[in-house]
Amino acid sequence: MKILLCTNSFENVTNGPAKFANLILEINTLYPEHEIRIVTEDITKPHTNVYPVEVRLPRFLKLLSQFFRMFIYHNAAQKIQKEFAYDVLLYNNSFIGLWSAIVSKEPTVGMINDDNNIIIGWSNFKANSMWLKRFLFRKCEKLSVKYHQHILTNSDFLTEKVIAAYGHPQKVTRLYKSIDLSKNKFQADRPFLLPIRILFVKADFKRGNLQTLTDALALLDRFRFLVTVVGPEERFKPLIESYFIGKSNLQLDWKGEQSPDNVKQLMYECDIFCVPALQEALGVANIEALACGLPVVSTAVGGIPEVLDHGKNGWLVSPGNPNELSQVIENCITAIEQRKDKVSNGESFVKKFSKYVMYQELLAILQDVISHYTYRNASERTSSGS
């Protein structure tokens, strides 16, 4: 089976889709009967089995950039097919694959990685460009579910949301995003010396609800905390610094954008991983923290409970509640035996997110898509011929 993955994120490995794109190239080595290649705009140097595609659009078309990507990536895929006759076209963003889904002669599979578009509706109307952009994206995402042969989501939560919003339940399958467990060393013993080190990793720090985290920690004034913030761009540093003003027991350890290796090193150095998100389809960073033996405190939203085994692997609180979050963080600090049990449970549980499990499930899904597509086309030709 030959697979071509189209992804607009690859080299800048800071999100789930980019990590997925980098991982699955290993299929070529582990399963030589299959071959996967990638086409992406996010590339600055040559990579084996990766094709560059250029996306250059004037600034005034930025709002519509994803619409233009539909045609740019489809045209690139058609050119690549002349030298790499792929059997299935896989899009890391189902919306960008919409045009291919409509016109391609090969089966297409799209991925929906979050519910950012699904949650947009007239009930939360805002008179700004972002709302309009998401509203249009939702319409196109719905069409992509209709026209793609199959849709992959990254959690049971998101699967239910996609089906409820867009229909076609027979087309939608959950495929957990995975991590390379072989690159993690499980380190359960944490010193918990003062200041206690809290690690927050989320580029979208508002969605990750960093302010609620600082408000919660300020309530625990018998402890001192060093809060390491990873992910946000430098331009947001002044706003984030304002979250720490007047909170004498907190100190900001600003890291900003960091490489995956640096983030992993911080997971070995810190005491607690806490991103009390308002919204999260899965939360790959929580998986990585569990694999490193880092205690995880998070919120019971989206796919996070699936990662934390509904509280067996960590602590879950309701979102946007500093009082509840402070109580749970204090429990994580002081209840040593409970903390050890949850961390130990996490070590076993993350095996379900192994990359090998993901590879096998992905290949089985794609093979099934190709088989059904081929059978359906053969049946249609037979019917038209008769």
UniProtKB/TrEMBL annotation:
Keyword Glycosyltransferase listed: yes
Pfam families xrefs: Glyco_transf_4, Glycos_transf_1
Glycosyl transferase family domain boundaries: 196-346
Top-rank lineage group of the source organism: Bacteria
Top EC class, one word: transferase
Residues covered by the Glycosyltransferase subfamily 4-like N-terminal domain: 34-182
Molecular function per GO: glycosyltransferase activity
Alphabetically ordered keywords of this record: Glycosyltransferase, Transferase
Signal sequence, renumbered to the chain: none
CDD domains linked: GT4_PimA-like
Entry keyword annotation includes Glycosyltransferase: yes
EC number(s) stated in the UniProt entry for this protein: 2.4.-.-
InterPro entries the record matches: Glyco_trans_1 (IPR001296), Glyco_trans_4-like_N (IPR028098), Glycosyltransferase_grp1 (IPR050194)
Protein name in the entry: Glycosyltransferase family 4 protein
